[in-house]
Amino acid sequence: MSGRWTARVAGATAVVVVLAAGLWFWAGVVAPGYFESIAAGVIWFVVVSVAVGRIGKRQPAVRRAMRWTFSAATVATLAVAYWTSVRETRVDEPLETGVPASRLAPDQAPAVGNLLAPQP
Question: Where are the beta strands (DSSP E) in the chain?
Answer without folding.
Answer: none
